[in-house]
Amino acid sequence: MKTEIIGDRLYLPENITPEKIYSYIAQCAQLAMLLEVSASPKPGNVDRNHNYEDTRYEHFLASAVSVHPLVETASKGKGSAGRYIRSAVYESSLWQRGGNTHFGAFVLLIPLSMAAGEIFESRHHFTINELISSAYSIVKNTDVNDAIDFYSAFRMGKVKVTSIDKYDLNDDRSIDALKKDRSTLFDLMIISRNRDIIADEWSNGFKRCGYCASLIMDALQRYPEVLNDDKIDINNVVVYAFLKILSENTDTFIQTKFDKETADAVSRTAKSIIEMIDSDGLTFGMVLPYIERFDNDLIDKKINPGSTADIVIAGLFIALIGGLRY
């Protein structure tokens, strides 16, 4: 995992007045989800050109729209992360019938939104490291009620997880064990961090999210150099960031659904495509057929790098609240 993060100070756009800040944070979260699901070809995942049998592109659109009020409230810091995650999953389920669309994204976006609101209460600028450090502080201060709410969210979202010995999400007795041990949501993430990349983000301070934000901003700022194309295209930047994150990390959603060997093979293919993009003389358009072939292969095998998508959503969110425009 690479975690090189730019240290430049980012600023809220001048038109974002104090009374608009919390709504702005929610808008950025929505746009991050919409940009990610719309990007195509995004190998293996639902996008504007690919649906799964039970989960469609439009389900993701509905889910992204549904949580605006919830994210806006969370950014005001008047509640707990676990409760907001549970509420986000609930709101999403009210607006669409496609099942689990954004669970992992909510787990990342909620603390990052809370951190953004906390920072913007006193100033209109931040660095990526400051934002992810604030989010890390928030998650480290979760309690047993957050853990219980998180378990409820998992059940509500019908999320597929790997069984573990302690506090197994598939075991009805886990809630009683959590209450008895007074284990926090952060404790649960520590236990799961070797099996789940989202839990690892909580455990290690959202470093991949910060790195992804840097990656996206750098790619847009140096577009001709990075993607060897003259015309800036946010779609291509998101696809590039997706492939880059996938090439450097094992997607634990694939690992849970299939096995680690399958997940590692997917990452190796992504790495080979990134190496082509990084080669001199190859434009993004010239590499596009390889990305499309990779996409079709994963779609046919129902292999979807869902955890990678969640990291990209969080990276987009961080970049957007810092004023990224395209």
TrEMBL record:
Q: Which InterPro entries match?
A: CitG
Among the GO molecular function terms of this UniProt record, one is: triphosphoribosyl-dephospho-CoA synthase activity
Instruction: Give a Pfam family name.
Output: CitG
Q: Quote the protein name from its UniProt record.
A: Triphosphoribosyl-dephospho-CoA protein
Which organism's genome codes for this protein? Methanosalsum zhilinae (strain DSM 4017 / NBRC 107636 / OCM 62 / WeN5) (Methanohalophilus zhilinae)
